[in-house]
Amino acid sequence: MEGTKRKRSLTLPQNKSGLFRLIAAVVVFALLFWRVGAVATVSQFGADTWLRLAVSGLILGGMYALIAIGYTLVYGILFMINFAHGEVMMIGAFGGYFVFEAFNAIPVTSADGTTLSLLNSYPILAVFLAFLVGMSIAALAGFLLEKIAYRPLRGAPRLVPLISAIGASIFLQNAGQLLFGPQRREYINPDLLTRGTGWEIPIGESSVMLTYTGVFSLVLSAILMIGLFVLVQRTKLGKAMRAVAQDKSTAALMGVDVDKVISQTFVISGLLAGAAGVMWGIHNQLINYFTGFLPGIKAFTAAVLGGIGNIPGAMIGGLFLGIVESVGPAALGIDFQLKDVIAFSILILVLIFRPSGILGEALAEEKV
């Protein structure tokens, strides 16, 4: 009987805390809906503007989702946050940048006597090599990061590899500044992906442009996300990754090379981050050594929002965050420069009201 009373006394504060969080959540969302409704009644934006913002957010969200999947893959296997993942994206962006620069510097004379750069003579080859180089360099960076910064700390307390990840992030930022310079670099796209051009979709008396760079980035993001999901669910490597995430010791006893699987996970996350980096340069034009920091933190927010360790959750979280970040300032009637505030406010709200995310965390029993 005494034990029963003690158990009830322990659960009662948890129930009160849960009730308090529920009431607070209702109040917060009621205020948000009230604000959106108040802005909507006086808003001067038409349907074309809202659709334009939503499309822009969807494109941005696809990039966030690719980076967020990298966080989720590493967290699912090692139960740690790789805060240097944004810098891996930055390295991939510079890899694609230098490929485009090399192609643009080589002149090619056609049969009719006109001279074009190799970039515009063979645009598909240039884009393919830009992604190949950017993804390969980012994958190598992820592989070396695991070997040097994380593997020696495999058995250390959880805080130690987290500090190592922050240190690796700062190191890669400064290395990028020394190697590439502090100035911003402009991506020179082939004419096939000229910025500001695309398909015009009529909306009432106005129209919405689907830019070539935006559609290309969104479609490629979707292909890569679907490919990763198939790899994890249908291939031998994917089964090994899921086994290691579930229980490393048992997976090792069943013949799985745990260290090799962890290295391959970092390579895959690096590939996705590198692809996101090249897309970022192609679509947003400017990159520098600090390019990966904010997208990396926002992608971490997306991973937490969807459910850390949950691959579909990272996809949904990234797309949702991109749309909210793009549409949110207009919907709330605030300056568009405050979009970062919205993104990080979402992180705070999720951590307070639903720490497990939209789809819930994917954790093995030993990690709970």
Mean pLDDT, nearest integer?
Answer: 86
- In which order are the strands of the major sheet placed? 1-2
Give me the CATH fold name: ABC transporter involved in vitamin B12 uptake, BtuC
CATH class: Mainly Alpha
Provide the low-confidence segments as ranges: 1-13, 364-368
Order of helices and strands: HHHEEHHHEEEHHHHEHHH
Q: Care to describe what's here?
A:
With 368 residues, this protein is mainly alpha-helical. It has a single domain (48-367), classed as ABC transporter involved in vitamin B12 uptake, BtuC, CATH 1.10.3470. 72% of the residues lie in helices and 6% in strands. It has 13 helices and six strands. It has helices at residues 2-42, 47-78, 85-105, 118-121, 123-150, 159-180, 212-234, 236-246, 248-253, 258-284, 293-306, 311-332, 339-353, and strands at 107-109, 115-117, 185-186, 198-203, 206-211, 286-287. Strands 1-2 form a two-stranded antiparallel ribbon. The chain has a two-stranded antiparallel sheet with strand order 3-6. Strand 4 and strand 5 (206-211) form a beta hairpin. Helix 3 (85-105) packs across helix 10 (258-284) and helix 5 (123-150) packs across helix 10. It is globular and about 75 Å long. It starts with a helix and ends in a 15-residue tail after the last helix. Residues 1-13 and 364-368 have low confidence and may be disordered.
